[in-house]
Design brief:
Keywords: Membrane, Transmembrane, Transmembrane helix. Pfam families: ABC2_membrane_4. This is ABC-2 type transport system permease protein. The protein is mainly alpha-helical and 254 residues long. The chain has one domain. Helix 5 packs antiparallel against helix 10 and helix 6 runs antiparallel to helix 7. The longest helix has 37 residues. It is globular and about 60 Å long. The two termini are 22 Å apart.
């Protein structure tokens, strides 16, 4: 396990695509804030301007706007990181060992968690720079609430990376995996299922889908909202981890 994790971490730290994605994300995040300044509109009935939002509200506002750009960056990195190892054939060095297969999945999960954490750190830095430059606003809001928001969104985005990892593992095809990642990031499936649900059943089960939960603006002071958010995130992580491990164990050697 330790050796596989070291190997993946070595590849991670020397992965030029990872640094490029973080740099692009930072640049486009700042550019997006600049464009918000140019076309600033009230975002609530109370007339709250984007420039007056705390970082807590600003994060919720940007994440809820389709498409979720963070999900696209996560999808691209996840697929590239997994497919680069698969295409090199390095997996054949350990795939004949059952425990090594399991450890390889957990190693990838740890690397994806690290990338998602770095993406959130980059977002906070970019937001701080952009909001200071264009809105003269750096209010972070209540520290406790901010930590809860970041923790919940980190788990949801990590779960999304595991979903994309499962797709990449099963398809072993770069184009198919990227297409699926973009469709999921756009939440096409969630919106279609939600529309069908409202049209024919009137239930609200689709609100428990991973992407729908991720993009929904949450009341962080509401215990039911917190249970919903963390419950969906943890359940998705556990289920997707199990599926990834089970598939890896049964994967063909070819």
């Amino acid at each position: 396990m330790i050796n596989l994790l070291r190997m993946d971490f070595y590849r991670f730290t020397r992965n030029k695509i990872m640094y490029l994605l973080l740099l692009l994300f930072c640049a486009f995040q700042i550019f997006g804030i600049y464009m918000m300044k140019q076309y600033a509109q009230p975002v609530e009935e109370g007339g709250v301007q984007i420039g007056n939002l705390t970082e807590i509200d600003f994060i919720q506002y940007t994440i809820s706007q389709p498409p979720s750009w963070m999900l696209i960056y996560i999808a691209v990195f996840t697929i590239y990181f997994y497919m680069s190892e698969w295409n090199s054939g390095f997996h054949k060095n350990y795939i004949s060992m059952r425990q090594a297969r399991i450890h390889s999945v957990f190693s990838k999960m740890a690397i994806l968690a690290l990338f998602v954490a770095m993406l959130f750190l980059t977002m906070l830095i970019a937001d701080g720079i952009g909001r200071r430059m264009f809105f003269d606003q750096t209010d972070m809001g209540d520290p406790g609430t901010l930590i809860i928001l970041l923790a919940s969104q980190f788990l949801l985005h990590w779960a999304f990376s595991l979903l994309v990892l499962c797709i990449a593992m099963m398809t072993k095809n770069l184009l198919i995996s990227l297409s699926a990642g973009f469709v999921l990031a756009l939440n096409v499936i969630g919106m279609v299922l939600g529309a069908l649900e409202n049209q024919f059943t009137g239930t609200h089960l689709t609100q428990y889908l991973l992407i729908n939960t991720l993009v929904r603006v949450k009341d962080l002071g509401n215990m039911a909202d917190l249970i919903h958010t963390f419950g969906v995130a943890v359940a998705a992580i556990l289920i997707l981890s199990y599926l990834a491990v089970r598939y890896k164990i049964r994967e063909d050697l070819n």
